[in-house]
C-alpha cells in the first residue's frame, strides 16, 4: 500500500457542490435549497463513512439542513449545513446543542478529514484508485 502526503482537499472538486447553477436560481431566488445541497453532500462521501443521511426530524429550510453522520470509528454527529459551510452541532443523530461552538468547514471533505482518520484513509485510497485508473486509460 502506497503512503502519500497528498491532502484530498487540494485536489479539484468535481462534484459541482459550489458551482451548481441549477439550484442557484431555485424558485426565482438567489438562495439554494439546502436539502438538495445536503443530499449532494451525502451522495458524495457516503462510501467513506459508516452511515450518513439528511435528518428527517430536524427542520430543513432554504438556508439550513441537517445531516447525520456516523464515522467508521462509530462516532455519531449531527452536522448543520448553511451558506457558511458545515459544522458539528451535536454528538448524536437528530440533535442540536446551542452550547457547541464548533468551527465551520467550507467542505464536507475537510470536516470529515478533521473528525475521522478512517475517512481520510478510505477517501485517500479511493483517490489513488481513480488516479491509477486514469493512468491506465491514458496508457492504452
TrEMBL record:
It comes from the Eukaryota. Pfam families: GSKIP_dom. GO terms for molecular function: kinase regulator activity; protein kinase A binding. Signal peptide: none annotated. Residues 34-134 form the GSKIP domain. InterPro entries: GSKIP, GSKIP_dom, GSKIP_dom_sf. GO terms for cellular component: cytoplasm. One of its GO terms (biological process) is regulation of canonical Wnt signaling pathway. PANTHER family: GSK3B-INTERACTING PROTEIN (PTHR12490:SF4). Belongs to the GSKIP family. This is GSKIP protein. It comes from Leptocoma aspasia.
Amino acid at each position: 500500500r502506497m503512503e502519500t502526503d497528498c491532502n484530498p482537499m487540494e485536489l479539484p472538486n468535481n462534484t459541482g457542490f459550489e458551482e451548481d447553477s441549477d439550484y442557484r436560481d431555485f424558485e426565482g431566488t438567489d438562495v439554494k435549497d439546502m436539502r438538495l445541497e445536503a443530499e449532494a453532500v451525502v451522495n458524495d462521501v457516503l462510501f467513506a463513512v459508516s452511515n450518513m443521511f439528511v435528518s428527517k426530524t430536524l427542520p430543513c429550510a432554504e438556508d439550513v439542513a441537517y445531516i447525520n453522520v456516523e464515522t467508521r470509528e462509530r462516532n455519531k454527529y449531527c452536522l448543520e449545513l448553511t451558506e457558511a459551510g458545515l459544522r458539528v452541532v451535536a454528538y448524536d443523530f437528530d440533535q442540536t446543542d446551542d452550547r457547541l461552538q464548533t468551527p465551520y468547514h467550507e467542505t464536507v471533505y475537510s470536516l470529515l478529514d478533521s473528525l475521522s482518520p478512517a475517512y481520510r484513509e478510505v477517501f485517500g485510497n479511493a483517490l489513488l484508485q481513480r488516479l491509477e485508473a486514469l493512468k491506465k486509460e491514458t496508457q492504452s
